[in-house]
Amino acid sequence: MRVVARTTDPVRLGFLAALLADAGIGTVVLDQHISAVEGGIGAFPRRLAVAEQDADRALAVLREAGEDGGADGAA
Asked: Which SUPFAM superfamilies does the protein's record reference (predicted)?
């Protein structure tokens, strides 16, 4: 798995996942349940990951849509 986006905004996370789903790229949200630890304050970003073989295509889809993904070194 390779992280292609990081965000604390659940709406943006859903949008990015939908963009990738439309391109036929499956995603996994990592750190989805961290809110139980942080108390729901939204301080920790959720990570959107794709299979390693889909990473380059996923990053291209995000760039084409004007989204850098917010992943360290990914875009």
From this structure: GlnB-like
